[in-house]
Protein: Lon N-terminal domain-containing protein
Amino acid sequence: MAYPTVPCPLHIFEPCYRLMVRRCMETGTRQFGMCIRDPVKGFADYGCILEIRNIEVFSDGRSVLKGVGKRRFKVLQHGTCDGYNTADIEYIEDNKVYGEDSEYLTILHSAVYDQARTWFNTLKSSLRVRIIRHFGPMPAKEPDPQVNPNGPAWCWWILAVLPLENKAQLPFLAMTSLNARLKHIRSILTFLFLAQLK
Structure:
């Protein structure tokens, strides 16, 4: 699962995806879409654009690329090209709220951020080190949670590190309400806290 602002290293070894990555580099876009698999459609209806930051190509054609999530999208039409999946997409963003709704969102944002930070700090130090090596440190809390059209970076970071299956993570990409995303994250964190107490 790829999320906006979150690092996503990949090992590319299948010939069709080697071709796709080579085309991304040659055209200069350095970007491609990433979706989880779907047993019926082939891949899910929501995903995230990945930007290739660095790529190391080996003599046998395999490569390891360091990517980072950019923008969320909704798939409008599924397709294939030279063996790899393609899609027509539209970008999605969070809906902004104003007035009292904005004030409530700022309070909720702070509370869930603190809860997420506390949960992360309760993990074993060896696990925290592995997470930070893979995803980087937890991003700081933005003063304005609506400044980024994809929502706060820390939300995506915590979703990437929470012990959730891909199917449980996918709905978060589709949400255009930061309020709803924060409430769902809060519910998951509360469940994890309660599970630790048992």
Notes: Residues 94 and 176 are 4 Å apart (CA to CA).
